[in-house]
């Protein structure tokens, strides 16, 4: 058994189709939804932990891609340049897992890499560009 | 120097003069606290006793201030050139001045930037980054052209420049230190919106605010009693000055019972020497889908002349409210009313209640760095490196009748000419 974390980007055309659950059934996987951000008439985003045999996980990813889902594996890391970060807080509201958070007393922005799912949303949102993705 | 008669018992008006406070700075007897610390002092002692105890209150703010830029005199080349167009690291600079004077505006994007053609654009480099790189001592690529004259024959220039080699290089910010500001929400768009207030999440998914609140310079002197033309300030790590009221200075904005404006109000025009600045306090920033801006560190040292100034500088986040404005429609179209007025104390808890919903808050102005600026300035005053200045001329205040005008739109082709 293995767990792979993936970010799924759904185009508008797929939002009314149960692509994820079909993939789970078809490849006999279990899953954890780490984050889902899907609204009618918009692109959707889901951060998913897929649990199962490694080759089944690969199969599910390949099948979802065939259906038109953009699948981004979380084999990447988001890192922060602490010198560049000004503790402004602009990133907090876009971080899907609260890996970026503000201490209400010190007003410092903390970055908890354990909580980060490396979705990369913070990278272009950070005004001084302190966040980057490494592969 | 003003007489001190009666000051020992009852503080009436101006019990301390600028000269007296500066004398204390010179002799090291001065008592300085930050505006954050002053909240506790006034809470404990009351304004009268606080005014006797504290001489100077320092403030600070560090946030995006779009209306910023720098004048550079690059020196004359051989042969001489009257520059027509100029680019600094590919960012267009304004050259419509004397031969080798340039103004680089903070929000100018690099030439060829895709802007918002693929929305949201990233705006990775612009005038603000040029200014930061100059201050950091980096070489900057200057490219220029000219039409050529008898006295200035050169037509083209392609060279590296460095801050140390320039003649004058000073920051000139037409509008900094906004006294209070809007809180941005997204009430109507069916998607996140990309603004100068950051990414504002759909369905009232975020409330984005941008003020240092109780540490902010003009919120500690709401009627600009001690800040005016000529006032020495902390600007980008250097000692700079206020040269004018800032653009869009709006002193007649409604105020609460403490005199604190309940929305954007006063602003400062500021100037300071780039060569003295520190890139820690002047940072180029990029707003996703919006553009480039400059985060500017600015602070003031306010003389506690009397009980009124103690009361003003004792202002806390709970006393300051900001209007919550929809940026998906109302801000752009000058429509609607604020959804609410919320205090900075509430904003700083991490969420506010709006329309029956708990809305996460996100700041754009660094309170950590604002506090650092106020502490730095406090240190400068304590060791006698920073003296206070009485304004040469006051800024228009609440009684000036001066407000903030919208454009008087007069469509071309339908005019009755004057």
Please describe what this structure looks like:
The complex is a heterodimer of chains A (135) and B (418). Chain A is 19% helix and 33% strand. By secondary structure, chain A is α+β, with helices and mostly antiparallel strands. Chain A folds into 2 domains: 2-73, 2-Layer Sandwich (Alpha-Beta Plaits); 76-135, Alpha-Beta Plaits (2-Layer Sandwich), CATH 3.30.70.20. In chain A, the strands form 3 sheets. A 4-stranded antiparallel beta sheet of chain A has the order 2-3-1-4, with helices on one face. In chain A, strands 5-8 form a two-stranded antiparallel ribbon. A two-stranded antiparallel ribbon of chain A has the order 6-7. In chain A, α1 packs antiparallel against α2 (54-66). The model of chain A has no long low-confidence stretch (mean pLDDT 88). Chain B is α+β, with helices and mostly antiparallel strands and 418 residues long. In chain B, 17% of the residues lie in helices and 29% in strands. Chain B has helices at residues 18-27, 35-53, 127-135, 307-313, 330-333, 344-347, 367-382; strands at 32-34, 56-58, 61-64, 69-73, 85-88, 91-93, 101-105, 140-145, 156-161, 169-176, 183-185, 193-195, 198-200, 207-209, 228-229, 232-235, 238-245, 268-273, 282-287, 291-299, 301-303, 321-326, 340-343, 351-354, 357-363, 393-394. In chain B, strands 3, 4, 7, 10, 16, 17, 18, 19 and 20 form a 9-stranded antiparallel beta sheet that branches. Chain B has a 4-stranded antiparallel beta sheet with strand order 6-5-8-9. Chain A binds chain B through residues 39, 41-42, 86-94, 102, 104, 106-108, 124-125, 127-129, and chain B through 62-64, 120, 122, 124, 190-191, 198-199, 201-202, 205-206, 208, 283-288, 293, 295, 348-350, 360-369, 371.
């Amino acid at each position: 058994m293995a767990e792979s974390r993936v970010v799924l980007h759904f185009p508008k055309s797929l939002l009314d189709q149960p692509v994820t659950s079909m993939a789970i059934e078809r490849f006999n996987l279990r899953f954890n939804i780490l984050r889902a951000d899907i609204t009618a008439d918009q692109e959707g985003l889901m951060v998913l932990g897929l649990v199962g045999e490694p080759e089944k996980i690969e199969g599910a990813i390949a099948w979802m891609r065939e259906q038109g889902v953009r699948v981004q594996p979380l084999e990447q890391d988001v890192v922060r340049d602490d010198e560049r970060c000004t503790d402004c807080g602009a990133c907090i509201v876009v971080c899907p897992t609260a890996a970026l958070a503000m201490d209400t007393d010190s007003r410092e922005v903390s970055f908890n890499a354990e909580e980060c799912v490396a979705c990369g949303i913070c990278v272009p949102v950070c005004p001084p560009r302190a966040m980057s993705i490494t592969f | 120097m003003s007489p001190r008669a009666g000051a020992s018992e009852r503080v009436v008006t101006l019990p301390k003069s600028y000269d007296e406070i500066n004398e204390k700075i010179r002799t090291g007897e001065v008592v300085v606290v930050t505006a954050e610390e002053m909240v506790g002092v006034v809470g404990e002692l009351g304004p009268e006793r606080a005014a006797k105890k504290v001489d100077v209150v320092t403030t600070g703010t560090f946030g995006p201030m779009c209306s910023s830029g720098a004048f550079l005199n690059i020196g004359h080349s051989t042969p001489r050139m009257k520059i027509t167009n100029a680019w600094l690291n590919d960012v267009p600079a304004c050259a419509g001045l004397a031969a080798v004077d340039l103004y680089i505006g903070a929000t100018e994007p690099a030439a060829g930037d895709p802007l918002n053609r693929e929305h949201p654009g990233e705006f990775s480099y612009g005038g603000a980054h040029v200014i930061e790189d100059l201050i950091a001592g980096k070489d900057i690529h200057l490219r220029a052209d000219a039409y050529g004259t008898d006295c200035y024959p050169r037509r083209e220039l392609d060279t590296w420049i460095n801050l140390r080699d320039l003649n004058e290089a000073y920051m000139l910010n037409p509008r900094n230190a906004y006294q209070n500001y809007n809180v941005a929400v997204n009430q109507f768009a069916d998607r996140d919106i990309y603004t100068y207030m950051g990414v504002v999440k759909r369905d009232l998914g975020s409330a984005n605010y941008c003020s240092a609140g109780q540490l902010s310079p003009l919120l500690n002197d709401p009627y600009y009693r001690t800040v005016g033309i000529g006032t020495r300030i902390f600007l980008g790590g250097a000692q700079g000055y206020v040269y004018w009221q800032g653009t869009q200075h709006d002193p007649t904005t409604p105020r609460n019972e403490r005199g604190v404006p309940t929305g954007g109000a006063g602003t400062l025009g500021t100037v300071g020497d780039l060569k003295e600045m520190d890139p820690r306090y002047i940072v180029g920033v990029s707003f996703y889908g919006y553009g480039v801006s400059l985060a500017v560190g600015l602070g003031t040292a306010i003389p506690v002349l009397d009980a009124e100034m103690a009361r003003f500088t004792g202002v806390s986040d709970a006393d300051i409210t900001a209007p919550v404005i929809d940026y998906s429609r109302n801000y752009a179209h000058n429509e609607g009313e604020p959804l609410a007025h919320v205090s900075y104390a509430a904003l700083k808890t991490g969420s506010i209640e709006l329309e029956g919903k708990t809305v996460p808050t996100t700041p754009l102005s660094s309170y950590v760095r604002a506090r650092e600026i106020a502490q730095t300035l406090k240190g400068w005053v304590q060791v006698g490196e920073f003296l206070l200045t009485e304004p040469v001329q006051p800024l228009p205040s609440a009684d000036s009748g001066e407000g903030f005008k919208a454009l008087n739109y007069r469509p071309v082709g339908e005019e009755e000419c004057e």
